[in-house]
Amino acid sequence: MTSLQSPSDLVMIRPHHFVSNPETCADNAFQTRPNLDEGAVADSALREFDSTVETLRSAGVSVLVFDDDTPGTPDSVFPNNWFSTHAGGHIAVYPMFAENRRRERRWDVIEALKQRYRVQDVIDYSGMEQDDLWLEGTGAMVLDHIGRVAYVAKSNRADPVLLERFCTHFNFEPMAFDAKDSQGRDVYHTNVLMSVATRFALICLDMIVDPTRRDQVVQRLEETGRTVIDLSEAQINAFAGNALELSVSDGRILALSETALAALSKGQMAQIEDSAALLPLRIPTIETAGGSVRCMMAGIHLSPRKV
Q1: Are 203 and 193 contacting, i.e. CB atoms less than 8 angstroms apart?
Q2: How far is Cα 61 from Cα 40, in angstroms, rounded to an integer?
Q3: Domain ranges of the chain
Q4: Please, what is the end-to-end C-alpha distance for the chain in angstroms?
Q5: CB 41 within 8 A of CB 18
Q6: Are 219 and 190 in contact (CB under 8 A)?
């Protein structure tokens, strides 16, 4: 069952030197330090990655894997921040806040996509880093491909000028809002706060600061036919918002971490399972870097070339 919202193909980057990124810990409240040496952490992350890919493929998802053997790219397992793909044959490449994350951009990945899928153009925003402007892909933006809305928690990772430019190029309506945790810290990436699927949306409404804007977000989601499943901040901290719906041959699945699944209530799981089967993935080491399942997956919204 195909869905405009939910890709059936993914790009994932296999990390050989994974570590919690020291350049992003200042404003990523989700990062932690694992109690292992760096070599053991990297080995554990690699095993988690391989198991995740195997589980996804067994579920019917097509996964295009690229190895990253570069020591200086600790967050390369999270490719959704540096590029996104869009129906009609469009690719966007994004400017990144942390200098060591800029090295994650790989044109061999873009060229491989051109070989396998119909790509009309690549719009490269990465040069805006020279002006200290950043827009970190589908981490900074949660995209409703059906309703054409870009939901964005305001932060230094989502420059408003670049957001407007992206929305103009790719035909989205920007819907930005202030979002903070209970300690008053900005939510650094929108995709830890919410996930938009075909028939439902996971979101922590309490973390949207302005009540009027909160109501507008709910209204917009409901107008596009979504059931709004409200998450608590504790569930967000367990990465319950960092999930991605995928299309497989017999329906849709929601890929999320075991940590996230354990945080959901039975009622919330039942609401999700009305339209998507739950697919839990075990990635506790990778989650120490401050991202979870959704961050690991760059969805491919392109038409495949006929072989």
Answers
A1: yes
A2: 29
A3: 9-299
A4: 22
A5: yes
A6: no
191 phi/psi in degrees, rounded to 5: -75, 0
The candidate with the shortest Cα–Cα distance to 298, out of 113, 157, 150, 172, is 113
- Fill in the amino acid letter for 166: F
For 299, residues 6+ apart whose C-beta sits below 8 A from its C-beta are 6, 7, 9, 10, 80, 84, 85, 138, 244, 246
Query: Please, are residues 216 and 252 in contact by the beta-carbon 8 Å criterion?
Result: no
CB atoms within 10 A of CB 94: 28
- For domain 9-299, is the CATH number 3.40.50.2000? no
CB 87 within 8 A of CB 307: no
In whole angstroms, what is the distance from residue 65 CA to residue 43 CA? 17
Determine the 3-state secondary structure of 232 from DSSP: coil
Phi-psi region of 132 (alpha: psi -120 to 50; beta: other; left: phi over 0): left
Q: What share of the chain is helix, strand, coil (3-state, %, to 5)?
A: 35, 25, 40
Contacts of 265 (CB under 8 A, 6+ apart): none
Tens digit of each residue's pLDDT, the chain (307 residues): 567 999 999 999 999 989 764 544 444 444 455 555 667 889 999 999 999 999 999 999 999 999 999 888 989 999 999 999 999 999 999 999 999 999 999 999 999 999 999 999 999 999 999 999 999 999 999 999 999 999 999 999 999 999 999 999 999 999 999 999 999 999 989 999 999 999 999 999 999 999 999 999 999 999 999 999 999 999 999 999 999 999 999 999 999 999 999 999 999 999 999 999 999 999 999 999 889 999 999 999 999 998 6
pTM of the predicted model, to two decimals?
Answer: 0.93
